[in-house]
Specification:
Layout (H helix, E strand, L loop, with lengths): L5 H11 L10 H13 L4 E5 L6 E7 L7 E6 L18 E3 L2 E3 L3 H19 L7 E6 L7 H10 L8 E4 L8 E4 L1 E10 L3 E2 L9 H22 L12 E9 L5 E2 L2 E10 L5 H23 L4 E10 L2 E2 L5 H10 L5 E3 L5 H6 L4 E3 L14 E3 H19 L2
Helix pairs in contact: 1-3, 3-9, 5-6, 7-9
Length: about 400
């Protein structure tokens, strides 16, 4: 087993202790990191959201000019509500070679490794800078990374490449699916259920759209396109939220539902949404408006996460793979901030400790060996990309 330093484990304990569920502020954690860096002579830039209750932290180690390596991680975590934890989720617990706690895997373990390495990085003769980027609200739309990218456009030192430390089992990943979220609101006409011919049932119209999406999902699974490097190897469509109606004997006037498309990099999710809208317009709307001209659909689309499709031959990919021993860069089906950085012309990989199967669930954990491997990986990568 590759054992991490005690300093890293202590940082994981500190970071897990901050309740940074996305609906809450992350400022206490960000200020903790700022104060730690300040004690080492490192100045941090805080980039707040519109409310002032959340912030990104961006700092540069080594030369203050020129391009370098950015190490990026998000500080927010998913909720623990309704989950059956065997321990306090915000108190790090160690047993059986694992560290348990909300965010231990996704992804405070990586941030802890980076923070623990700072004194060593500062002691090196760096020829290029190492940038630290810790963001807010990744779990609910990557809002912090979007704000950070806006600021990077105006900074004198723009990163030459980036590692996003999401849990990949310390394998190098240079591809992930994109994600698009759509909210649909259906407006019908209420009426007594004894006279459904004089009303427009919004729930039933929504249900027909959801059934259409399910058929689309089956088609994509069976007919593709397919990419065997992903699991699952096709674009997925999923309806996760739906609500409408007030009483069984009232034909419901309103219904809303939300669905997501997690798409292969080469597939445009807008084409799939247009297919659904055409079905609503041509197959459902005429019958609805024959009863009530005010009936209809409203749509709100949010392209939450762009896909990552990085070049295999970039310096960051080649050096990272030579360190990990991977013969081929991998692909993942969950989204990360890497797609946003790549779209901003910063070559980016995803590589971090832990496995996504342990994230977002009760008793989330990261294996101690994974933390140790992450320390070794970052030490070597910094030497290669930023050293003499």
């Amino acid at each position: 087993m590759t054992a991490p330093t005690r300093r890293t484990t202590e940082f994981i304990r500190d970071l897990v202790g901050f309740d940074t569920v996305s609906r809450k502020s992350n400022l206490a954690l960000i200020e903790f990191v700022r104060d730690y860096l300040s004690g080492l002579g490192v100045e941090s830039r805080l980039i707040h959201d519109e409310t002032g209750k959340k912030a990104n932290l961006y700092a540069t180690l080594g030369p203050q000019e020129g391009s370098g390596l950015m190490l990026s991680g998000h500080t927010d975590v998913v909720p623990v509500d309704g989950q059956d934890w065997s321990t306090d989720p915000f108190t790090l617990t160690e047993r059986d070679g694992k560290l348990f706690g909300r965010g231990a895997c996704d992804m405070k373990g990586f941030i802890a490794v980076v923070l623990a390495l700072v004194p060593d990085i500062l002691g090196r003769d760096l020829q290029r800078p190492v940038h630290l980027a810790f963001t807010y609200d990744e779990e609910v739309g990557c809002f912090g990374a979007r704000r950070l990218i806006e600021q990077l456009e105006h900074m004198p030192q723009r990163p030459a490449c980036c590692v996003v430390g999401e849990p990949t089992g310390m394998t190098v990943v240079n591809g992930h699916k994109g994600k698009m979220t759509v909210h649909c609101h259906v407006r019908g006409l209420e009426g007594h259920s004894a006279h459904i011919d004089k009303a427009v049932n919004a729930v039933e119209a929504a249900a027909e759209l959801v059934a259409f999406l399910k058929a689309m999902a089956r088609r994509l699974k069976n007919e593709g396109p397919h990419d065997g490097d992903f699991d699952p190897p096709y674009t997925t469509v999923h309806t996760g939220v739906m609500g409408g109606g007030t009483a069984l004997n009232i034909v419901p006037r309103e219904c809303s539902f939300e669905f997501e498309i997690r798409h292969l990099p080469e597939q445009d999710p807008g084409d799939l949404v247009l297919e659904l809208k055409d079905f609503a317009k041509n197959s459902l709307l005429p019958e609805m408006r024959a009863v009530s001209p005010e009936s209809g659909f409203t749509w709100e689309e949010f392209r939450g996460i762009p896909p990552l499709a990085a070049d295999d031959d970039t310096d960051i990919v080649r050096h990272a793979m030579s360190i990990t021993g991977d013969n081929k860069a991998g692909k993942i089906s969950f989204g990360t901030e890497a797609g946003l950085y790549q779209r901003a012309s910063i070559p980016t990989i995803v590589c971090g400790p832990g496995h996504i199967a342990q994230a977002h669930k009760p008793d989330e954990y990261v294996e101690i060996d994974q933390i140790g491997r992450c320390e070794s990986f970052l030490n070597s990568l910094i030497d290669r990309l930023c050293g003499a």
